[in-house]
Write a structure and sequence with these properties.
With 385 residues, the chain is mostly beta strands. The protein has four helices and 25 strands. InterPro entries: F-box-assoc_dom_typ1, F-box-assoc_interact_dom, F-box-like_dom_sf, F-box_dom, SCF_F-box_component.
């Protein structure tokens, strides 16, 4: 075929699959044939699968201080064995200047960002597509003056049954005169990218989400938050994107609960939920790692590893590999810890202390505007060759 010269079609396809999304976005404009191929849903799925298998990176959000003393958000990618990183040029409304902007989840190259007030945004950093979600469908009860509403939980993920990306939002309502730190009640709604609309789901929210940005994790088709049940017990609250139901997962019974001097982070490690326990303060810190070997089963929590004691380390961020975890240093630098040789490395990545948030990330062509439903993995669509 003329558009690929003397190259076999299979080789031409393999070359394109190895290109980053940014390069493929430029290649679309070479000719009509290339545009048709690169925008084909089957090619987008193959490109995504290739990157999942070969090019998984870490997406990092941090704050930097400008020469005028103002804080600005910055998105960066940490890739490869040599810790190469690049800053992403993402032009998003409120992105740089919003001090409370949170990185809420990643799925198939799309990330979710929010300030937890009036701003929820989906973005593909590679294609530079973004979309602000429509307004909530939940009432704020303005006719009850003593009732205050607040977004307490947000999560982003993928529904494998309907092949659709979703955002879940939990809104809690407090009575001013009640004097309790737990809300009076909570309601939940789900945004579906396929319909571009919110719907309230008629389910009970069985626990109350407590703000803990280092805890919020998407895993196994469900989003997870740190929460308290009605009896004041610490639990993990999860929301399944497929059946749109909540589940309460107990914390390990053999760790000290209700101790505010102890931090709790939830990460994903070796295809399991991992709970990391460590002291909030101290020159030296040890990090205990508990793994839930059978998802949702309290008795399967196992203390598998203790890291440290380490100096100059503030908190864990993300497992980059099975034997490597990225951590934030006490002075706002990123560090790497190798679980095999117990070696700590300082990385040339800096930010405002405690402003770091991270996600495991893959580069993709998946759109946040058109073609919002991914193909079934068994789809046999060809490319018209």
């Amino acid at each position: 075929m003329e558009v690929i010269g003397d190259l076999p079609r299979e080789l031409f396809l393999e070359i394109l699959l190895r290109l980053p999304a940014e390069s493929l976005m430029r290649c679309k404009y070479v000719c009509k044939y290339w545009h048709s191929l690169i925008t084909n849903p089957k090619f987008i799925q193959l490109h995504l699968n290739y990157n999942y298998n070969n090019n998984v990176c870490v997406l990092l959000k941090r704050c930097l201080v400008t020469c005028l003393g103002q804080k600005e958000n910055l998105l960066s990618l940490v890739c490869g064995n040599g810790f190469s990183f690049e800053n992403l040029d993402v032009d998003l409304s409120l992105y740089r200047k919003e001090p409370c902007l949170q990185l809420l989840g990643h799925c198939d190259g799309i990330i979710c960002l929010s300030n937890y007030r009036d701003y929820i945004l989906l973005c593909n950093p590679a294609t530079r597509e973004s979309m602000v979600l429509p307004e909530s469908c939940l009432p704020c009860y303005p006719w009850i003056r003593s009732l205050i509403s607040q977004t307490t939980g947000l999560g982003f993920g993928y529904d494998a049954k309907s092949h659709c990306f979703k955002v879940v939002r939990i809104v809690s309502y407090w009575e001013e005169l009640r004097g309790s730190n737990l809300p009076h009640f909570s309601r939940a709604e789900v945004y579906s990218m396929g319909t571009d609309s919110w719907k309230e789901i008629n389910v009970t929210v069985p626990a109350h989400v407590r703000y803990s940005p280092c805890f919020e994790t998407y895993f196994n088709g469900a989003f997870h938050w740190y929460a308290m049940d009605d009896n004041g017990n610490e639990v993990i609250l999860s929301f399944n994107m497929g059946n749109e139901e909540f589940q309460v997962i107990p914390m390990p019974s053999f760790i000290s609960m209700h101790d505010h001097s102890i931090c709790r982070n939830l990460l994903v490690w070796n295809d399991c939920i991992a709970l990391v326990i460590y002291p909030e303060r101290g020159i030296e810190k040890s990090f205990e790692i508990f793994v839930m070997k059978e998802y949702g089963v309290k008795e399967s929590w196992t203390n598998v590893l203790t890291i440290g004691p380490l100096t100059r380390v503030e908190r864990p961020l993300v497992f980059r590999k099975i034997d490597e975890i990225l951590m934030e240093g006490s002075h706002g630098q990123m560090m790497s810890y190798n679980l095999r040789n117990k070696e700590v490395k300082d990385l040339p990545i800096y930010g405002v202390p405690k402003s770091f948030s991270t996600l495991v990330y893959v580069n993709s062509l998946v759109s946040v505007k058109g073609g919002n439903q991914m193909l079934d993995q068994r789809d046999n669509t060809d490319f018209g060759w």
